[in-house]
Amino acid sequence: MGKVICVANQKGGVGKTTTVINLAASLAAAQKKTLFIDFDPQANATSGVGINKDEIKKTIYDAIIGEVNIRDIMIDIEPEFLKGYLTVVSASPDLTGAEVELIHFENREQKLKEAISDITREYDYVFIDCPPSLSLLTVNALTAADSVLVPVQCEYYALEGLGQLKRTISLIRQRINPELKVEGYLLTMFDSRNRICHVVANELKTYFSEEVFETIIYRNVRLAESPSHGKPILLYDVKSIGAQTYISLAQEIIARNGGD
Amino acid sequence: MGKVICVANQKGGVGKTTTVINLAASLAAAQKKTLFIDFDPQANATSGVGINKDEIKKTIYDAIIGEVNIRDIMIDIEPEFLKGYLTVVSASPDLTGAEVELIHFENREQKLKEAISDITREYDYVFIDCPPSLSLLTVNALTAADSVLVPVQCEYYALEGLGQLKRTISLIRQRINPELKVEGYLLTMFDSRNRICHVVANELKTYFSEEVFETIIYRNVRLAESPSHGKPILLYDVKSIGAQTYISLAQEIIARNGGD
Ligand SMILES: Nc1ncnc2c1ncn2[C@@H]1O[C@H](COP(=O)(O)OP(=O)(O)OP(=O)(O)O)[C@@H](O)[C@H]1O
Ligand SMILES: Nc1ncnc2c1ncn2[C@@H]1O[C@H](COP(=O)(O)OP(=O)(O)OP(=O)(O)O)[C@@H](O)[C@H]1O
Ligand SMILES: [Mg+2]
Ligand SMILES: [Mg+2]
Fold this sequence. Notes:
Bound molecules: adenosine-5'-triphosphate, magnesium ion
Structural class of chain A: alpha/beta
Low-confidence stretches of chain A: none
Oligomer: homodimer
């Protein structure tokens, strides 16, 4: 119970937030009790499911500095459709300040892990959406996680950054979180008409072989449209390729984690 | 002489690096003496012009902590074609550590400005490629700059983050750099077949009116291919739409800055 999966890649714009929202919603639709935590000061995962950032008084920032209990800042998403299977903890721009504020704490890498330790047992899956960097926020997420899911956009720069990410994951595993595994590398924004997508896909499979998810996420404009409607793709356009690929990713993750 | 333009947006993957490399190369081809500084620990702007990161001993990191003079770490790019009009200062992953190391300095926001103050007069344009965050590295770049160029991907999340960026720019202007102006907002990855691109373009022109560049950068696969060949688009495929749009952006910037 309660697998914590951090979705991270320091390369910007590779589909971290899109993966957290749509994978979490697909698992909820499969009646897995799912929580996601927006841990990016941009708070895209918060607005992407229709939460109005200006109405939220307390966010994950307040939980990691110890001012609120995480149980008091959870929000149920699409309750009529997902019947309480999808819960969200939102973020705010204050998180940028946390990078500096946390420096002075003894156990600064463990703050997120401490804030969520009471509640992970109550969920089948807990996702953490990371900012595009390898700084203290992402280190906190890697420390709190059982595994890390790495979205890889099918482009040159995204491939180039994987070495740096792999080194950071090994460092965290050696120093702070020995149990940290790789959930998988996920190809995103794949466009079969572009030669470069096939090159990147082949390289990824060569370097990371069975750690690469079978499911590939295709470039699909409906995925880019759904956040402006504040809905996961499943509720915005369930027949779209985008929805279908995230449903199949959810099934692959369920199967990899002992199924049913 | 010596206009310093910082290219920034905390949203990841919006085309910051692609804009720095290709705008700088287009200005160099127009015989403007141009320098760009890679200030992102991912060092994409460094590899995007064919520099092998493993061969570089000293980078901008060493210059801002005061160990080297910036004159000693400059690299001429494509000297036969651009005849010394394009020079680069590379980055390295060490920059991630600088965020923490600089915290203890009195004038931590001014480190980049100090490192480059001797040399900006020798160039017509100096660009700074920023990481996808509003942390101390981007604050250093905004402090060192005369103006900021903001690439805006034609998608919902990119538009959403502009409010936060605008507030940060005003704060820097009030507290540290009163001369900081906005060079302009640049629409990137525009695909006229996608409704969302037209929506974002209209919103941008409504909110920021004459600050939006006339030039629009279209989505063009050749722009995504050129970094894997280590060449600016001008040298990879000068007839492509990608090359043409960055040439026209260079002309627009020259005209806006009283140029000939
Ligand atoms: N498969 C896809 N097809 C089309 N558009 C996509 C796809 N996945 C993501 N997008 C769009 O691409 C942009 C980048 O995706 P997203 O914001 O999820 O990436 P990210 O890695 O979370 O970015 P950041 O590094 O800023 O946190 C968004 O505008 C999103 O809507
Ligand atoms: N106009 C364009 N058409 C097609 N692809 C593009 C275009 N501009 C950029 N790209 C590609 O999109 C990806 C993101 O662009 P880029 O890396 O320049 O963004 P960035 O803002 O610098 O990202 P980061 O936030 O990680 O620093 C890259 O793979 C790049 O090659
Ligand atoms: Mg994101
Ligand atoms: Mg970049």
